[in-house]
């Protein structure tokens, strides 16, 4: 099997020849270019080249392409700061009151920066890899995270807790869903095999399960449904312990759930078995500071717990830190070849 066949089998609960492996490595890949990170993260050609060099070195099955967690916010008009040592950040609210969302327009991803640069990177990767690797072109952020960026995290959490304007909370989440969906479709048009949203603000570390069900859930579900109707595979990425919302998280129908090491993998696998593919969940702290042997042990355990009955992609639990050692990344990729449960 090649990487595309391996991941296609995995996502559809057929037997692959081994567990596929992904890397969430845009930060170390950009650092390895030797260029300033802001330059790489603003330029689709440089970003694509960085991801290609890393793919040729590590040989993973799935490339996760993005320039961080502020792409959609910037395309909507928010101010974004490009950092020297990590991904760009968006800390300044775009709207002062909830009702201001009614004046916002959904950006055209082919024209709005930096979406247009990530589309360029997707096209280059698709051409240069010629069907040899699965490209997940990420439509970060999802409805909840983008809403928190555009409104400001503290104010949006208060909007939800006080619940005085539920119609406008939903209007903002709906706008953000339309932004991410429009972008996701463009990423697939440019050659992505799947796409993804990041929704860490929707997770129990940030938002109560009750509020997850009340607000972001239905917008995530609608996004999944709209993309599925077009045959598009969506990953949903929520950091932290997702077990308290696992049933709802799975019920969105997202074909891939990206999980980190804080969730009980055994319990999540029981819930996800036959319904959705789990991707993760190796601790990025271990990948940054541990030894290759420790990384290998963690991968072996993850495969033992989550690979049975298929539907498992091995990878980091979240974005790899900029200075993650290459030896540990090799250990992660090699573990998928070494410990084959099939
Ligand atoms: Zn994460």
What does this structure look like?
The chain is α/β, with parallel strands linked by helices and 342 residues long. The chain contains 16 helices and 8 strands. It has helices spanning 3-11, 26-32, 37-42, 44-58, 71-76, 115-129, 143-151, 153-162, 166-189, 209-214, 216-229, 246-251, 265-272, 284-289, 292-306, 326-338; strands at residues 22-23, 62-65, 134-138, 194-198, 234-237, 256-259, 277-282, 312-316. The protein has an 8-stranded parallel beta sheet with strand order 1-2-3-4-5-6-7-8. Helix 13 links the parallel strand 6 (256-259) and strand 7. Helix 2 (26-32) packs across helix 4 and helix 4 packs parallel to helix 6 (115-129). It starts with a helix and ends with a helix. The model has no long low-confidence stretch (mean pLDDT 97). Zinc ion binds at residues 200, 237, 239, 260, 318. Zinc ion (ZN) is lined by residues 200, 237, 239, 260, 318.
Can you summarize this structure?
With 342 residues, this protein is of the alpha/beta class. The protein is built from 16 helices and 8 strands. The site of zinc ion has 5 residues, from loops.
CATH topology: TIM Barrel
Bin the helical content.
Answer: 40-55%
Count, helices: 16
Listing every helix as H and every strand as E from the N terminus to the C terminus, the arrangement reads: HEHHHEHHEHHHEHHEHEHEHHEH
Overall spatial form? globular
> Low-confidence segments, ≥5 residues, pLDDT <50?
none
CATH architecture: Alpha-Beta Barrel
Give the topology, please.
Blueprint: H1 3-11, E1 22-23, H2 26-32, H3 37-42, H4 44-58, E2 62-65, H5 71-76, H6 115-129, E3 134-138, H7 143-151, H8 153-162, H9 166-189, E4 194-198, H10 209-214, H11 216-229, E5 234-237, H12 246-251, E6 256-259, H13 265-272, E7 277-282, H14 284-289, H15 292-306, E8 312-316, H16 326-338
Parallel strand pairs: 1-2, 2-3, 3-4, 4-5, 5-6, 6-7, 7-8
Bound molecules: zinc ion.
Zinc ion is lined by residues 200, 237, 239, 260, 318.
């Amino acid at each position: 099997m090649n990487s595309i066949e391996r991941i296609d089998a995995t996502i559809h609960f057929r037997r692959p020849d081994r567990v596929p492996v992904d890397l969430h490595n845009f930060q170390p890949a950009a650092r390895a270019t030797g260029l300033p990170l802001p330059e790489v993260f603003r330029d689709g050609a440089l970003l694509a080249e960085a991801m290609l060099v890393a793919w040729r070195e590590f040989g993973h099955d799935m490339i996760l392409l993005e320039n961080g967690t502020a792409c959609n916010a910037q395309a909507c008009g928010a101010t974004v700061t490009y950092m020297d040592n990590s991904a760009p950040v968006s800390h300044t609210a775009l709207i002062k009151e909830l009702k201001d969302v009614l004046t916002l327009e959904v950006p055209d991803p082919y024209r709005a920066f930096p979406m247009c640069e990530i589309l360029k990177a997707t096209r280059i990767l698709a051409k240069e890899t010629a069907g040899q690797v699965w490209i997940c072109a990420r439509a970060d952020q999802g409805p909840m995270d983008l809403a928190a960026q555009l409104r400001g995290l503290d104010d949006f959490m208060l909007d939800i807790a006080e619940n005085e304007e539920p119609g406008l909370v939903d209007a903002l989440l709906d706008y953000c869903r339309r932004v991410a969906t429009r972008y996701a479709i463009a990423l697939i048009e440019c050659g992505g095999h799947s796409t993804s949203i990041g929704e860490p603000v929707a997770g129990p570390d940030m938002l109560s399960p009750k509020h997850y069900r009340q607000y972001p859930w239905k917008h995530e579900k609608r996004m999944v449904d709209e993309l599925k109707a077009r045959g598009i595979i969506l990953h949903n990425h929520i950091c932290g312990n997702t077990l308290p919302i696992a049933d709802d998280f799975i019920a969105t129908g997202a074909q891939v759930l990206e999980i980190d090491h804080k969730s009980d993998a055994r319990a999540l696998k029981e819930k996800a078995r036959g319904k959705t593919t789990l991707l993760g969940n190796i601790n990025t702290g271990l990948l940054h500071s541990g030894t290759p042997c420790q990384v290998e042990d963690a991968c072996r355990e993850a495969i033992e717990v989550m690979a049975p009955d298929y539907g498992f992609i091995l990878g980091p639990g979240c974005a790899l830190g900029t200075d993650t050692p290459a030896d540990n990344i090799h250990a992660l990729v090699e573990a998928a070849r070494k410990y084959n449960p099939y």
